[in-house]
Amino acid sequence: MKKQRNSLLLAFVAVGAIFIASCSKDDPQPEIPQEETHEAQLTFTEVEWQDGQPVELEHPEVMVVTFEDGLAAVGTHIHLEAEKTYKVELTAYDFAGREIQQEFVDDASVHQAFILGAPDGVLDYTYADPADARVGVTGYLHVLQPSDGFVLNYILRHLNEGEKARITAGDWNNAQYTQFGGANDIDLKFEVHAVEAGHGHDH
């Protein structure tokens, strides 16, 4: 009789464990917003910069760098000419091939781009996102002077709540960007040569 009671007790415990596990699986879990990027590209389009405003060219030079899982093809590099300005546009795709860069702009309060790696005084940057966004999905890169080749690092960071308020427009190339709490959604690296005007295609 004692063995029978023990068997029944074990059966009830097992059924209870299954019921709890089933309920836990069915309970909705809070979702953590995080964009999963599989492929990305950066497009550089030459523009004329006049009185602090971009003017589109009829036949601009356009360079596109593509990335898969954050990596560009081996040997990828571009030449940017000193004293020129380039419109830089991020295009990002999820694993289903859908463009998701607009999500970064829509959630501007928790996203910020950083463009790192250039020697001091070589580049400057102007945001071109909507005035209330200032993310860096679109912007204008000004090449101020020639430089030896360097690795440009474009980072799109998913910030913790409240961190965006600490970031100024001048932080676009802040090498200490990790002080702004969060995690990187996108981390792209490729080689750039800042060359003298008129030598954009020299190697």
Describe this protein's structure.
- The structure is a single chain.
- This protein is of the alpha+beta class and 203 residues long.
- It has helices at residues 2-26, 101-106, and strands at residues 39-50, 53-56, 62-68, 71-72, 77-81, 85-93, 111-116, 123-127, 138-143, 147-159, 182-195.
- The protein is globular, with a radius of gyration of 25 Å.
Radius of gyration: 25 Å
Note the main sheet. Answer: 7 strands, antiparallel
Mean model confidence by pLDDT: 85
Give the number of DSSP strands.
11
For the terminal residues, how far apart are their CA atoms? 91 Å
Question: Which CATH architecture is right?
Answer: Sandwich
The percent range for helix content is: 10-25%
Please give the domain count. Answer: 1
CATH fold name, please? Immunoglobulin-like
Order of secondary-structure elements: HEEEEEEHEEEEE
Shape: globular
**Continuous helix count:** 2
Class by alpha and beta content:
alpha+beta
Low-confidence stretches: 2-33
Q: Can you tell me the CATH class? A: Mainly Beta
